[in-house]
Amino acid sequence: MKSQIKFLKFLLIGFLLSIILMFAVPSVAETFLNTAYIRPRTLVFAKGNFWVYAHNNFSPSQQTMIKSASNKLHEQMNNPSQRSKLIDCGLRRTVRAKPSKQVVDNQLKQVFVNPASGNRPIKATVAYMWGEKEVVGRGTLGSGEFPEKGDLLRVAFNSDYFGDSSQFSLRNDVDYWSATLLHEILHNLGYEHPQPKGDFITEFDLCVNFNGSIPQRFGLNGGTEDNIDDVYFRMRK
Ligand SMILES: [Zn+2]
Fold it and tell me: Is 39:123 a contact under the CB 8 Å cutoff?
């Protein structure tokens, strides 16, 4: 009888400890990463297949920006000729590891146009990042297989760089933040950039920023693009 009570006590303490650890470990991890990935979050955009949640720590003006950026991106990606123009622009500028147009088009359609699996929406969560210098956003690197993890896309925006209280020159630039949202989603889809420019993910980002109307890159450090490069490649994403 005594040993049974002991065992029950052991179970109860174990149970309580696991509950505490379940909440404590992610919070500690988030503090180290300067990024809050855990809920609570709010659905700020839902059109067709594409749903976007924003972490509740974001201010109203930041939530509005996430909503506007999602809306612009969704519109661009649902327009077949615009999508095609943007991919062409990105591929033209890419100087290494060029993906095929068909592959990119299919991936974008799976996220923004057709449900990747049945009628389940693609849910993207924008996590809350803070206190990181010269990093505007982050995206978890995926395997390139899609869909994965229940159609969840995980990205983070640095709260110091957008919304009304930020000092960043592009804090209210919807084009910049919709391009950033796409950039981080592309990380989820398996794209990497060992170099700060010249890879598809960074060049496509820029094409989305400028609606596909930027010239072919003539050498990474030359020509008329130096101004664009200074402004748009200075911040890490
Ligand atoms: Zn990146």
Answer: no
